[in-house]
């Protein structure tokens, strides 16, 4: 569109904004990222990520690099002060081809994400620039920003120099600017939920050079001691975090005093073997913004929801927001989808983010019990639960974590049947075997757009010419999934076309097809975020693609007819007998 400077302006260069910028950058979208702080914070806040978010980082082509700087497959346990284990989880299965429980050092993660943006000349990052005003109409957002010395990350009020003001125009504005979001505040959006009175002292440590200061603390521990609840968190690169719950009579100044910090950490480490990088008393909020979209302006991450730290999902909820938004913005900007599809952003993400908040509050209540009688009852309950068949496995596998499954009738996709439906759920990602005999994660074979999977058959054979044209216009990938040993054999020249074909050597996908009642020749349509849009039998694919056109709001004028496509793109030549 003429008259715009960028397609998307992102405010905030934390994990949510960085993830969104990388995903949009990979999809070719012109992006401006504005960050009011002129220098990087450089200290840890988030400490954990999971397999779902590593899969998202995989889409950004960064997961292997990021995972190399993490403690992966980490055990998490609830213990008493004497080290006695009450319960633990240590899930080692990898349904998404990534470890489930991973601890990180946030400066490593953010440095890698920001450095990766240099891959994209169409992504511009401007630090030391604060948003001072914005407005919108039906077609554009106008954003004014000015030079800013920063707030020292909340230590002082941020000021701007009006003489340096600039104004840019974009198609969309996304506020990823944290819990004190300027974008959310200027839109007049309130947050609803609970602010908790409990105060915690967080202490970030770094082992001194040449000292192995934390070897005796290999696991993440919730220390459920009523006299002093504690969180002990191993991190990569010789880092470790402790959190100590304050009593009502203890002041912030007392707890942040170096002598108090030294006394507390000396319960676990030799204070002379470590450097204190940060000490801070904080409270926490469990709140969600009342709305996440105002026309062409959206909010994401902590600007939209704030999660207590007790299950490590605050940052991850923002990463999931970025994934959801990135493909929908791309569909609008590149493929003519209607902006109304952005209404599904909040309806899809809010319930899951809220469920993560609720689970975090539950764990907070378990960990922070400070009355001995209640603590004893809690301990008996946990130790009993872990021994109950079924329930014990549920705890050990962290199955209480909210599933990546959209609320029924609140997502972009076909309605999900009550029994055995997969629409609106996250597809598994096993390793698959390529035609060339190599193992590959499934998503790497699917690309970054829509994907149509055919069970044991070329999915294009089940599609009409018009439906093929629609999917080609969306730059969809067509994939044949064969069971192990199921690749066809034939005469010279057979099978030489442009379809992706993979062999399900683990049996994961074929088992998933059967569970979802997808028979041979059936189709699965995956969204770019790898949630299932819908499924169809080979003889009944037309309603599936018709719904895709309808729900994306694709104009008939924007979907090329087969006559407008070259033969090699129409799919006709490739599937002819």
Question: How does this model look, in words?
Answer:
With 577 residues, the chain is α/β, with parallel strands linked by helices. 28% of the residues lie in helices and 26% in strands. The chain contains 17 helices and 25 strands. The strands form four sheets. Strands 1, 2, 7, 8, 9, 10, 16 and 17 form an eight-stranded mixed β-sheet that branches. An eight-stranded mixed β-sheet has the order 5-4-12-13-14-11-15-18, with helices on both faces. Strands 20-19-23-22-21-24-25 form a seven-stranded mixed β-sheet. A hairpin with a 5-residue loop joins strand 24 (523-526) and strand 25. Helix 1 packs parallel to helix 8 (314-335). The longest helix is centred in the middle third of the chain and has 25 residues, at 343-367. It is globular and about 75 Å long.
SSE blueprint and pairings:
Elements lengths: L5 E6 L3 H12 L4 E5 L12 E2 L1 H9 L3 H5 L8 E4 L5 E5 L12 E2 L2 H11 L6 E5 L1 E8 L4 E7 L13 E15 L6 H5 L4 E17 L12 E4 L6 E6 L3 E7 L6 H5 L1 H8 L8 E16 L3 E2 L2 E3 L5 E2 L7 H22 L7 H25 L4 H14 L5 H6 L34 E4 L4 E3 H5 L4 E5 L9 H9 L3 E7 L16 E5 L3 H8 L7 E4 L5 E5 L5 H11 L14 H4 L1 H4 L2
Parallel strand pairs: 1-2, 1-10, 2-7, 4-12, 10-17, 21-22, 22-23
Antiparallel strand pairs: 3-6, 4-5, 8-9, 9-10, 11-14, 11-15, 12-13, 13-14, 15-18, 16-17, 19-20, 19-23, 21-24, 24-25
Short description:
28% of the residues lie in helices and 26% in strands.
